[in-house]
Amino acid sequence: MDDQAFLNTLQSCLDADNFKRQAAEVRKIVQKFNDDEYQKIPDEQKTILLMSALCNVQLSSPIRAFAAVMLRRLFSTNFEAFWPKFSQEQQGALKKELLLRISHIDDDETIRKKICNIVAELAKNLMENVLLRNHAIHRKEHVFMFDFCNIDDNDTNQWPEVLQFLFESANSNHNSLKESALVIFESFPGIFGSQAEQLTTLIHQIFLSCLNNPDVKVRYTAATALAAFLKHNNEDNRILTVYRDCLSCLISTVTHSLQNSDEDTVLKALIDIAENSPKFLRPSIDEIFELCLQSMQNENFEETRRHLSLEVLVTLSETASGMVRKVARKFMNRLVPQLLEMMVDLDDDKEWSTKDTIEDEEDDSNAVIGESSLDRLACALGGKTMLQYILSAVQTMLQNPDWRYRHAGLMALSATGEGCHREMSNILDELVSGILVFLKDSHPRVRYAACNALGQMSTDFQGIFQKKFHSVVIPGLLSILDDHDNPRTQAHGGAALVNFAEDCPQRLLVEHLPMIIDKLDQVLLRKYQELCTQNRKLVLEQIVTTLAAIADTVAQDFSPYYDRFMPQLKYLFKNAIAPDYRMLRGKTMECISLIGLAVGKEKFINDCYEIMQDLVKTQVDFENLGNDDPQIAYLIGAWTRICKILGKDFEQYLPIVMGPVLKAAAFKPEVTVLADGETDVEEDDNWEVLNVGDQAFGIKTSGLEEKSSACSMLVCYARELKEGFVNYVEETTRLMVPLLRFYFHEGVRAAAAEALPHLLECAKLRGDDYVRQMWQYMNKELFKAIEIEPDHEVLGELFSSLGKCVETLGVSCLTGDELKELTTILDQHLKKHFERCDERQEKRRDEDFDEEVEEELLEEDDFDAYILNRLSDIIHSLLVTYSESYLVYFETLVPHFYQLLQAQRSVSDRQWSLCVWDDVIQYTGQASFRYQQYFLQRMADSVQDASPEIRQAASYGFGVMGMNGGPVYARACADILPRLFQMIDQPDSRSTENNTATENAIAAVSKIFKYNNSQIENFNKLLQVWFSWLPIHEDTEETPHVYGYLCDLIESNNPVIVGAENCNVPAVIRLFADSFSKSSIEVNSIVGQRMVLILKHVQTIPTIFQTCMAILSIEERNALAAALSATATPAQTHSNSTLTSSVGVMPTHNGRGEHVPVIMNNHHASL
């Protein structure tokens, strides 16, 4: 294609009017351009043609600007594919021409800036190591998997001429060249690569000089460039010190821009600094607060500028909360009233409460900005700092005759609960009493705000709120459901009831269930009539959702009301088929399936198949539903719940549902690479921005939630149907594995991870070879995902997935090289764990450290504890599967778990380290003794730790040491007994917080006594004490060990346990009865059947049995009777050989041919 033909192609996609349109329109033009003739041109030819158009000053500015946009996009998306195809001479000529065009100071200013951005993009790509090795996003194929890697410290700039150009331009006498140098620097602040440190003085001087330049444009551009530079170096505290003298110049520049310019770029730069380098602003924090507060109050400013001024303060509070809290007293008494005044800025729309269609509030309105800012400030600064100012103002507002002030006051309470949780908890009674009054306010929007406050508090104070206020809040919200004249308020009362029900204990909601059901039934009937006569559906949609939430919480207790609602819901679902009713029909689907899940298959089955036919019809029409049709998400959720209800019976519907579900799960969002300065995506609610390294991507969010739901649905199918899902395993696997690195949605990645072990389980029907091939397809991607996953919750899911895969596949799962690779990845994560811990300790030494900062750091501790927990699960799976053979790889991790166990580490660090050492002992036995110097003494000390979690883990460790450790641990087992006995005998050892640890200690003693007692002295005396500790019932994993050992002692006629003249037999039988009544031992378990056989023998001796029964409670007698009458399956019954092989037991037969022990008629009579 020649130049003229290419220009014609450009012109056909763009005219001057188009270029003046909104940036979103320009993006559409670019997209159209990509999809047409442009795509047919080879990239290297595109580059030459675009450069030709860009440098042709005879062309119109819009054409040249459009060419610049496309050239930069070409560099940012396809650079690695086409750049090497140019010869070095061609590359050099292109670079030279770009710098030459910038030097033409008489050129169009807009064009020159765009060329500067191209230069920055080219320089970025020419670095030896690029932050994103493959950051290409191909629009047609929507490739969006990223490899994260770090820039090498030895990066060098591959374009030395550009550095010389930067310094020459920055020191030029022409301000336009200074500005150009700063634009390049802003677009790529890492342009100096590894030379940046050597050039620190020169770079610093450039900034200082330009921030003091008389030319306004230079100063403003210097401010934005400084913000980018600080962001790029935000982890280098030395930079903050070196550039601190630029701060006063920066503040002066911000002040000047506010007073003399309509441009807000400098103010936005201040926001960027507040977000990325808040400590840099410390010396001027008072000045910044004063400046921004004055700007907020300046009525001559546009609202946008006033909101940006507020954003500076809110962002600074979020990123440097400790620093802001120190000056809060000076400014919060002015800032909080200003926010509340913004929340009062509401239109007095008389029809607001009667509208049937709710339009989203404008995100940039004063009321919305004020409320969200108050919420953010409360969360950032905490209740100690904020609550006093909020309550002081709100109390006055709630007494104001103007409804807008009462509304704002109540909405402020809604926004404050999360951030001021602890302080508000202390005055919750007073707050709730005050809010309830406004449910009867004369104005419907105030009643709406009262509902909002109660609903939000139900979430923010979940549990305690429901327990304390159910008797007043439920009737209050139900009264709002009678407000038929104000449907929007009425619907919000139903929404608040949903919030309350979701976190309400079942028993409390059941108390009010008849009243709730009657009210919902009345409203549902009336609103259905309004739908038919007036086409009003807002409240009906909400009531259906409220009914679903109530059923979901009360579960089986909803069964008596099932027949009351299901016919109406089925009718509504079948007949609400008009386009306007899509949301109503979707919510009805949700309600029906949730009710079915609540009442169970037996109750639901009569209606289920009829509903299924309608759902199938909807599913068949899936192709006709638009991507934005709300029915899609509800449909996917309904199918998932019905699959859980029907189980295997759901298989018959798979051929119908899988196509649409796979289509939704395979949805590929629209993605665009964002150039610097592109803000249209950020301002579009349908788009989100994802920053990966220095590159920003815009992602269109519509369809993402449906994709996530569909992926979760596939997990459900694989988990519930197992081999019944085998025909869809391959296609689902090929879909899910790449989604492990779908960085646009955490839920999608988490579902993909969760699916893998279930898919392997499903595939077993096709044989081991097929499963191995599947795993080979999975494991490399799973390893890579674990290595680079940025979200801690998804990382935990990935860890869990890998552990389950290993246990599912067994020893053939991983090769030696793969085990080594996996252990290396775990090693890297443990190193990161220590780095994050060190960073938190550094924050504790910071001058702004305070109690609230400590709370934030403790939350970060919890995140790390979660990751450490899941990481230990992988090691558990590896040890379970590979046993001693994994130790050769585990050697790499030993120093980490030794370090985690030290006394100065956090409770969670020590707990999970102990758990790993417990697994090492349990699954490698005597081989673990080689590491005893790393854990044995610390484990012994931990038995008496102040933390019950530590005591539990340590006790369990000595238990498996006794059970699996063998003779090499005999001395350690004997030596730990005094500490275990002391721990168990503590006065508060059976308190709620201590009982689980105590029961683990009792189980540990039981295992040591049974399996590793060779070094124990005074055994019988200790056994008497052990017997006195029983019963135990809380830790059902340990109770079988304890009661199994008790059965051993009885079967062996142990005189300490049986007692003289069988005197302890009643106590033994009572222990058995207690364990059955509390379900700590299942009757049909192996130990339970041993206990039943002993009981049956005692039953044959009336005198002893009557004595036993006389000391039992009614509950214990009933449990004993049920155990004696239960019939175990052969697989569950304990073998006779176990009963009869014990020394001292004489086998005999009862009337049913069962072997039973015999009571001996002598002095040492025993069972």
TrEMBL record:
Keywords: Cytoplasm, Nucleus, Protein transport, Repeat, Transport
Pfam families the UniProt entry points to: HEAT_EZ (PF13513), Importin_rep_4 (PF18808), Importin_rep_6 (PF18829), TPR_IPO5 (PF25780)
Domain (TOG) ranges: 388-631
Keyword match Repressor: no
Gene3D superfamilies: Leucine-rich Repeat Variant (1.25.10.10)
Gene Ontology CC: cytoplasm; nucleus
Localization, UniProt: Cytoplasm; Nucleus
SMART domains: TOG
Major location category of this protein: cytoplasm
Highest taxon above the source species: Eukaryota
Any single GO BP term: protein import into nucleus
Protein name as it appears in the record: TOG domain-containing protein
Species of provenance: Didymodactylos carnosus
